[in-house]
Amino acid sequence: MDIVHTLLAIWITASLLFQNSSNVEGRYHNHKKQKGSHKGSPGSKYPVSSPSPQDPSSPTSPPPSVPSDPYTTDPGNCSTDCIFDVTSYGAVGDGSADDTAAFRAAWKEACAVESAVVLAPADKSFIITSTIFTGPCKPGLVFQVDGVIMPPDGPDSWPKADSRKQWLVLYRLDQMAFTGKGTIEGNGQKWWELPCYIIPFQGPHGSTLKGPCDSPALIRFFMSSNLMVSGLRIQNSPQFHMKFDGCEGVLIERLSISSPRLSPNTDGIHIENTKSVGIYNTMVSNGDDCISIGPGCANVDIEGVTCGPRYGISIGSLGVHNSQACVSNISVRNAVIKESDNGLRIKTWQGGTGSVTDISFENIQMDNVLNCIIIDQYYCLAKACLNETSAVHVSDISYTNIKGTYDVRRPPIHFACSDTVACTNIKLSEMELLPQEGELIDDPFCWNAYGSQETLTIPPINCLRDGEPQTVADPSIYESNLNSCGFW
Prior knowledge:
With about 500 residues, this protein is mainly β.
């Protein structure tokens, strides 16, 4: 196991495991029971079985650094009953009753107890309406799902008073784990069929219209720290499966995330304004980006992930509406991307500011990928985006040991950099990308991209410019972008 994985796991999990290892097996919180309520069998808190993505090879470059142990003192084991089984609070778990009140009640009491476990037991299916589980809570809280939890089935069943932007929100939490052997079922099918996802769809008198696109993200962690998410199956989200916004210290491992290939806007894991993240040994098969990294992210380590089909691993989009975007120190290693429209992508809008810097892609296996490697600084969702002079500066990007096959409908490498803010210090080595079928396409695309081909590659990449850009609208743009992100 790589050193960063070890450090991050120790940092977030050691105290959680120490506090909870004996609790889940032996102690229940004795809340007043409802007549006919069912006792759950919690089992092990951290399942041993998990998805096992293919590991193309071992890492060779140093990963991002991670913070030190978040615990300043050892909170110790709890000495009172620690398991808050939602069925003890009236949850039925029959797949039709609304169990929201029981989950909220269990959470409220567990939040006040160190090392508490909110348990959704196995062999039951719980319906919960849109809910914010709020902290701060006592340290070591575990939300353990061994059964199935799900939202109401589609927009017509969604309570009118509830937010349609998100389903479960975990807010202002520290030293918390979301884990189990169970399933988070998103019931997304009816949301995907909304008119907003048919672009365009037929309106009155032959016109074309777009709907409101008002679909909920499934799980959102907001303004929280020292989090672990592990072992769960998360599927069929109406929109993003899992989002982290304004968080620091996140360990994600052994997840299985899935939705159909054509399910719209169903990113697997999305992070923004979030730092010190480890994503390990996870499988994502969905209808949009496997992992998407938005503005404000730094120190992100991704290893042992399998993606596909659809859009691969993306940094961006960044700089929309002339905004500032800062992303730094991202490492993606030992990953597999298969049957996808995109592989490794950095995408920015014209008119933005800031920078994307210190990005490493290493030991990546491609399997029939349409666009294997992309930097696109002309990202646009409409046909008439205006040309603008400012741009997010993309620099210090390395691609090492990228191998596999590509779809010959597109060249496997595409570097489309800003006219005025060139991409700089792109490094490529040990690349071997061959056509899945047909003839080798040996014309990679480069526009205003500076860097070097450090070893012989297949296909040859001779379009990178040497050195540093000599002509630019304003040479101070590079320094200004780095200064604005705090990198200088």
